[in-house]
Design a protein that fits this description.
Layout: E1 5-11, E2 14-19, E3 28-34, H1 35-40, E4 45-47, E5 51-55, E6 60-64, E7 69-70, E8 80-86, E9 119-123, H2 126-145, H3 150-173, H4 182-194, H5 201-207, H6 212-223, H7 227-245, H8 250-256, H9 262-273, H10 277-284
Parallel strand pairs: 2-4
Antiparallel strand pairs: 1-2, 3-8, 4-7, 5-6, 5-8, 6-9
């Protein structure tokens, strides 16, 4: 796996790979796999971020499912392939929501398919294969050269690929947009609407008319995580965006994501990212630091 991916936890003994939120890591990554690497294979694993596998010789595109065990041996013998990974937050506000809610996202819905082996197989039309190869090459070049605006350029090229995938997948998994799991949809709607407020498992359970224990069991079984995990993930996604894109003080960001205690917010952020919010911001935007605290004013009268 490239440096952008790392195991973040285990689910029933299977490693779950997440996209690193380290600000030094670009939001898109390209990994060229040779026949030798493909033959060696990667054991069963789970993706917590979107990934595509493109086979230039045949034009086959494999869409890697989020949250499902993936067995890459299902691809078969291949001489060369390109993997494209990305942080869904690169797509803006809509990409920061929990992945079970992506069923209605115009570009992310293909990644919540239920195809066998966790790999949805599509095929680029012959007339589009040159575009696929050129676009992947362009992303790789942007990431290698890292010139001015390379992140935005890589994301723009990625969007072209995702639009193509969504068009190809529409007939195959279009019904995912009309999910047959209204309870899960309701849970993630609540998280999206209220992550910036006080929100607990009990609040969510009450809204969907379930006991907290039963809701926890159902959500964990279907997504591999608890409701509280999903609430924290949504809050941290928003926190990263505010740290990177604004000059708001840490305390204000904490309040904006529903955690009014800055100390608790900092602990949660550190647990999720391995560093304090101010350090994450400093690495993401060099020179940007937490504004200094206003000078303390001593209101006591001066001694005469």
């Amino acid at each position: 796996m490239p440096e952008a991916s790392r195991p973040v936890r285990y689910q029933s003994g299977v490693p779950v790979h997440g996209y690193r939120n380290d600000p030094a890591i670009p939001p898109v990554s390209v990994w060229r796999l040779t026949a030798h690497e493909l033959a060696g294979g990667v054991g069963p694993h789970i993706h917590d971020f979107p990934a595509l596998l493109y086979l230039p010789r045949t034009g086959e595109i494999y869409v890697v499912a989020i949250g499902h065990v993936v067995d890459r041996t299902a691809v078969g013998a291949v001489d060369e392939a390109f993997a494209v990974f990305f942080d869904p937050a690169a797509l803006g506000d809509d990409g920061r929501g929990p992945w079970p809610a992506w069923r209605t996202h115009p570009l992310l819905f293909p990644f919540v398919h239920g195809a066998a082996g966790g790999m949805l197989r599509l095929r680029a039309p012959a007339a589009r294969r040159g575009l696929w190869q050129d676009t992947i090459t362009a992303i790789d070049q942007e990431l290698t050269r890292r010139g001015f605006g390379y992140r935005q350029a890589a994301q723009a090229h990625l969007t072209v690929l995702l639009i193509d995938v969504a068009r190809l997948a529409d007939d195959v998994v279009g019904d995912l947009r009309r999910s047959h799991e209204p309870m899960l949809a309701a849970v993630f709607d609540i998280i999206e609407q209220r992550y910036d407020q006080s929100l607990s498992l009990r609040d969510v359970a009450r809204t969907v008319s379930m006991t907290p224990g039963h809701l926890t069991t159902v959500v964990r079984r279907r997504t591999g995580r608890t409701v509280q995990d999903w609430i924290i993930e949504r809050r941290m996604a928003e926190a990263r965006a505010l740290l990177a894109d604004t000059d708001l003080p840490i305390a204000e960001i904490a309040r904006s994501v529903g955690l009014p205690d800055p100390g608790y917010f900092a602990r949660v952020f550190r647990r999720a990212h391995g560093m304090a919010p101010r350090h994450w911001r400093g690495r993401h935007v060099p020179g940007r630091a937490e504004p200094p605290a206003p000078p303390r004013v001593d209101a006591r009268p001066a001694a005469s």
